[in-house]
Design a protein that fits this description.
Helix content is 19%, strand content 28%. By secondary structure, the protein is an alpha/beta fold.
């Protein structure tokens, strides 16, 4: 019997978050908590294991908000700042637990070494800097994550290769514009899929709402949740009323439980 999986949405916003600094857009001024979105990330929990997908600039705030005391690793979808800029804030976990495992493609580790060189130094390292344990993953090879089998899914963020992840009958894919035909085989039989839906108008590197709905229909999961949402998609409650059955907007702190 597989261990029950719990998903917590730590953030569901796009790269600037909602509200955007200084914006007077009506969604940015909304008082509805579901319209306030930190940068996109989810927590995965089973048994006594806690993993996070992506650690953007709101990582510290997200960890405090859910009362996180343990972190068994971070999976990275890609190297963009809204998915990696919180890397230094793993320090409390490092001080308590030691090296924090990271799972990413070689290109992503290369980008982190350029931007966070002090974390990867091996000689004369600053004593306050954290250390990560590098676990290199590939899009065509599944891997074990403390008893769960993780299947990477190759998607494209414009021309940039990005990884989504399937665990049990749950799949998470953010910053999606296209998915190669061959990858849809990995998405069969899902209970829940999470995909990005940036806004109503088309975008060069992200799915808009119409494209995300078509993608959801092709995947055919029992339920679909949209994430990586900008203020230009509209108010959470208004958009939700017009979505098809079993398609939902995710929101910060939403929890999903799987047996």
């Amino acid at each position: 019997m597989r261990s029950p999986l719990k998903i917590t949405f730590l953030g569901t916003g796009t790269s600037q978050g909602i509200p955007i600094i200084g914006s007077t857009h009506p969604v940015c001024l909304s008082e509805d908590p579901k319209d306030k979105r930190l940068r996109v990330s989810v927590q995965l929990q089973w048994d006594d294991q806690y993993f996070v997908i992506d650690c953007g600039p709101d990582f510290r705030q997200q960890m405090l908000r859910v009362g996180q005391r343990q972190l068994d690793g971070i999976l990275l979808t890609h190297e963009h700042s809204d998915h990696t800029a919180g890397l230094d804030d793993i320090r409390p976990f490092f001080f308590r637990q030691g090296d924090v495992p990271f799972y990413a493609e070689p290109r992503v580790f290369d980008a982190l070494k350029d931007r966070f060189g002090y974390i990867f130094e091996t000689e004369n390292k600053y004593p306050g800097a954290p250390t990560i344990a590098e676990h290199v993953i590939q899009s065509d090879t599944s891997f074990d994550l403390k008893g769960k089998r993780v299947t990477p899914i190759r998607v494209f963020h414009g021309d940039l290769p990005v990884l989504g992840f399937r665990i049990d009958d749950f799949a998470y894919m953010t910053d999606v514009k296209t998915i190669p035909d061959a990858e849809f085989e990995k998405l069969r039989g899902l209970d829940v899929v999470v995909i990005s839906a940036l806004r109503v108008e088309p975008h060069r590197t992200h799915l808009n709402l119409e494209e995300a709905l078509a993608m959801a229909a092709r995947i055919g999961a029992k339920k679909t949740y949209f994430t990586h949402i900008s203020h230009l998609l509209g108010f959470h409650e208004e958009v939700s009323k017009n979505l098809p059955e079993n398609v939902y907007l995710a929101y910060d702190k939403l929890e999903l439980n799987f047996n």
